[in-house]
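tokens incoming
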């Protein structure tokens, strides 16, 4: 019951504007993950960027199960199986970026889409963590059962063979 597992992976492309560029980013995410992306909207008004609250500025896809593990393996291969220790937070979550989607193995450059980067966020959990999300009788997870940074680093080393560098 102490062994961590991947709960979900969120692949996010932030474009910064709506329109044709956002449509291309959605098309790219759908090709890479074979799932329909969801648009993300701005939460703040920033006049210097011509950004209004509620404008679509990006898209994301949530992956779970085997699809998530396969995509994560491709993501680590794009980073040459090496990520920095600063990519891990204190709750055991991992986030890293890929500069260009053509770095992912098995993908080719499409001139119609252009070049986009993406962020990959991985959330780890243990069996029994459902008690904090369930609808009826929610409960907190004790601090001793939470996933720590060191545990998530060790999990990534064992499961995916990733090398963690010290910055």
């Amino acid at each position: 019951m102490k062994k961590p597992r991947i709960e979900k992976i969120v692949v996010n492309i932030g474009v910064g504007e709506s329109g044709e560029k956002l449509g291309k980013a959605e098309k790219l995410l759908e090709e890479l993950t074979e799932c329909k992306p969801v648009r993300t909207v701005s939460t703040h008004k920033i006049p210097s960027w011509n950004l209004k609250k509620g404008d679509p500025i990006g898209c994301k896809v949530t992956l779970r199960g085997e699809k998530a593990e396969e995509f994560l393996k491709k993501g680590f291969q794009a980073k040459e199986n090496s990520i920095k220790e600063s990519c891990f937070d204190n709750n055991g979550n991992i986030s890293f970026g890929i500069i260009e989607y053509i770095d992912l193995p098995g993908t080719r450059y499409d001139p119609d889409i252009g070049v986009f980067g993406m962020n990959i966020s991985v959330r780890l959990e243990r069996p029994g963590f459902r008690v904090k999300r369930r609808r009826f009788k929610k409960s907190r997870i004790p601090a001793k059962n939470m996933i720590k940074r060191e545990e998530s680093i060790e999990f990534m080393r064992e499961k995916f063979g990733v090398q963690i560098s010290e910055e």
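note: The first strand starts at residue 5 and ends at 14.
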